[in-house]
Amino acid sequence: MSLIVLGTASHVGKSITVAALCRALKNRGISVAPFKSQNMSLNSFVTADGSEIGIAQAMQAAAAGLDPTADMNPILLKPKGDQISQIVLLGRPYKDVQIKDYYAETDRLLDTAVAAFYRLQALHGHVVVEGAGGAAEVNLYDRDIANIRLARSLQLPIILVADIERGGVFAQVYGTLSLLPEDIRPLVAGIVVNKFRGDPTLFATGVTRLEELSGIPVLGVVPYAVMDLPSEDSLSLGDKQRRSDCTVRIAVVRLPRIANFTDFELLEQHAAVDYVTPGGSLSGYDCIILPGTKNTVEDLAALKRSGTAADLVRLRDAGVPIIGICGGYQMLGTRLEDAGTESGTPGTHEGLGLLEIVTGFAGYRKTTVQVRRRARPLGPILSAMGEVKGYEIHMGETERGCVDEAFEGDGAASPDGLVFGTYMHGLFQNPSAVNALLGYLHARRGETFDPIGGSVSDTGTPCVRGAYDDLARHFERHVNLDYIVSLFGDPQVRAAGDETTLEE
């Protein structure tokens, strides 16, 4: 048996709740896998077999102690702009579609998702399903394959998650339940109130009133907590808290179609990292990073229109390190030759000219692969990195000509090593890469930097020591996990839960 976690809105904490459940059940000896039928995100991950899925499902798989697979997120939508998204189907690029045309494929895509769910359940026994956005989007009920139509197909118990930090939690819960279709409403078996700031016992009367209004038990009030886990999508950018006690300042250019900004979350823990929109000031930063993007051509045009492209050239002349990841790496070159597969219109586009490389987009092909590479001994940063792990997700191919590789088999670097690019996402999840960059930047300031420890896993996901167990303990302290375990309806699961004492 399995269950579904739905939300009253986007960003209420569904992904973290699923991760917490996966880890808590794993710690009770229960085999469980995560699943999200349809995800819309530019933060993605590459599995061992080269499949692309949402990074949240990779994180949840790690919480469950599993290697991520395409079945955990069979449909991934990656917005490209102008109401066009790329469909990644079972881990592989399927096609680019206008959103209005996407809905014409709803029935077939739902069948694909349901089949993936049953494969996971057959393999692992139990599945925790995550919905998408808000569950009560009444105008989408006929095509909502992430919430209503999926719930109707699977007929599983539902836990509804609400976000009290936003305010209006009573309206969130009561409104959502009132608007759910009549055949779905009885499936809701419990409510979790998330992101409470302060002592959750102060909401005791609120719990009572919610239960009176809904007729459904409130399973817990979970206090707000900052967890060292990857962010799911761009909504999380607004939650980032910049460190104010660090002298080293790094600017990540917040491209309009920024992708995989989770690449920099380890850096955020040890430096003052700002996400600067095109046109924003880059003065005073010790390093500039151009991140990945879902549309290199359009985001490069945004840099030029805003004046940021000229600023980058000026900063390079001033000796500021400039690093490009994936699409950001492509922008560093002299030109982009697009046959129309990247921007939709054939053309040649002048790059930033910081590296003598040329990138071509000649066909609807995507590279998705996990990699392990050694940095080349070029300049003070790359020379100190050693071997690193990560993964590639990109359209287009780059010709280096006579330019030196930044890593063995990948990327390019200037002779002094202060400008370099790579297709490797996850580079700065490697402590050795963080140490190399921050060690150099601190040394330029005449300061010392104490290296950080740790590693990344063989799958390339961040190894955050104890983070998943911390999350599970936090969840169990405030949520009736025994009741949730009972929802699985499997006597063996209930017995496994009975043998474990909740940590108070």
UniProtKB/TrEMBL annotation:
GO molecular function: ABC-type vitamin B12 transporter activity; catalytic activity
Annotated catalytic residues: C326 (nucleophile), H425
Domain CobQ/CobB/MinD/ParA nucleotide binding: 4-232
Domain of life: Archaea
Domain CobB/CobQ-like glutamine amidotransferase per the UniProt entry, residue ranges: 249-431
PROSITE patterns xrefs: GATASE_COBBQ
Keywords of this entry: Cobalamin biosynthesis, Glutamine amidotransferase
Involved pathway(s): Cofactor biosynthesis; adenosylcobalamin biosynthesis
Database matches in InterPro entries: Class_I_gatase-like (IPR029062), CobQ/CobB/MinD/ParA_Nub-bd_dom (IPR002586), CobQ_GATase1 (IPR033949), CobQ_N (IPR047045), CobQ_synth (IPR004459), GATase_3 (IPR011698), P-loop_NTPase (IPR027417)
Keyword Transmembrane helix: no
Keyword hit for Secreted: no
Biological process annotations from GO: cobalamin biosynthetic process
Function: Catalyzes amidations at positions B, D, E, and G on adenosylcobyrinic A,C-diamide. NH(2) groups are provided by glutamine, and one molecule of ATP is hydrogenolyzed for each amidation.
HAMAP family, per database record: CobQ
Protein family according to the UniProt entry: Belongs to the CobB/CobQ family. CobQ subfamily.
Protein name: Probable cobyric acid synthase
Gene that this polypeptide is encoded by: cobQ
